[in-house]
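Escalated from tier 1: zinc ion holo job.
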Amino acid sequence: MTRFKTTLGISITVLALLATTAFTFLARAAQAPKKIRVLLVTGDDVSVHPWPVVSKAIKDMLAASGRFEVRVCEDPGVLESAASLARYDLVFLDFYNASTPTLTLSPAAKENLLNFVSGGKGFALCHLSSASFKEWPEFRQLCGRCWVMGTSGHGPRGVFKARIAQKDHPITQGLEDFEADDELYAKLQGDAPINVLVEADSDFSKKTEPLVFTLEYGKGRVFHETFGHDGKALENPTVQKLTQRGCEWAATGKVQ
Ligand SMILES: [Zn+2]
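Tier 2 regenerated the structure:
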């Protein structure tokens, strides 16, 4: 009898402990902010752009912040399904259709991406991605500024001073000017209103060029960074911070 009582006592204690643990776990899960779901579209670029390395670096830096859940897709055809797209908060484009220059998105894929962003979600892109889909004028509006072959350019890749152009934006708050090791993109084309966050003086254009900027698109937001020539360019801690915060801002409208 005593043994039975002891066993019963232990069982009740164990059950109570389990219940408390489960409750604590559920309470914490409810408090933790929901992860931002990112669809990272990649899979092609010019030969000097190692897209598998760059897309992995982007995925890793987003995951490292603890704020994102990233799925990588190596086929822009993924945009064909509005239902698939609806599962995400942000589409990140690290892609230029170099080996398939005539590739374009289907009308449905184009409409889905525009509806996704204008409906209130986020779009982010880096480096040469803005040169994609040349035949699609609205894509230029979505990117704010675009690389145009034969017009846009850059000096030799190297170290240059990048300036924080706006210090009171949630994406740049507390960040200092920094030395980037990348190509300084110049003469991007476009006239959509953009909010420049990072800029640099270009030897190529002899002008101050916007390197990181945001824009509104319908109810949604776009984060555009020209960094990302290769893995080394993305090792810079300020570039990583800008990318993490920029993606969060584009997806949610704020940075926690
Ligand atoms: Zn490049």
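Residues 2-31 form the longest helix (30 residues).
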